[in-house]
Amino acid sequence: MRIYQKRDLIQKAYECPTMTKQELGAWAKVAFKLKRAPAQTTISDILRKAPAILSEAYGDGKCRKPLEVTSLALEEKLWAWIQAVEAQNVCLSRELIKMKAQDLQKELCDAWELDFSDGWLSGFQRRHALRYRKRHGEAASADTAAVYLGR
């Protein structure tokens, strides 16, 4: 179940406190068009974790689990750097973003377990809605400093 569905289930449980977990599961199956009703243990877990699920920090509701960021300070600094560089119309590559992330990690020293894999970078790009396409031909080979001086 997605986060917004869990929140709706919690709301239904609060509105109808006499409903059993089995009835809540049957309601969820119909309301969310699920293939099968959630198990009673799943319903119990959702209701037990209700305060956390209802909090803003749990997520936006589109995914199944909340996104966990290992180093919030690193993410914020890297995102600020990307925005500043893109404001100067510089095309960033995935490799360049990883290199900057490694430099920032050395500065911050708060997330030693990060290895900046392709999966980490893909997750970072998804969280910040970044999309990069590989440039081919002249656009990829041009030196940005030379282009800037030539304008």
UniProtKB/TrEMBL annotation:
Residues 62-134 form the HTH CENPB-type domain. Pfam families: HTH_Tnp_Tc5. One of its GO terms (molecular function) is DNA binding. It comes from the Eukaryota. InterPro entries: CenT-Element_Derived, Homeodomain-like_sf, HTH_CenpB_DNA-bd_dom. The keyword DNA-binding applies. GO terms for cellular component: nucleus. PANTHER family: PROTEIN PDC2 (PTHR19303:SF73), TRANSPOSON (PTHR19303). This is HTH CENPB-type domain-containing protein.
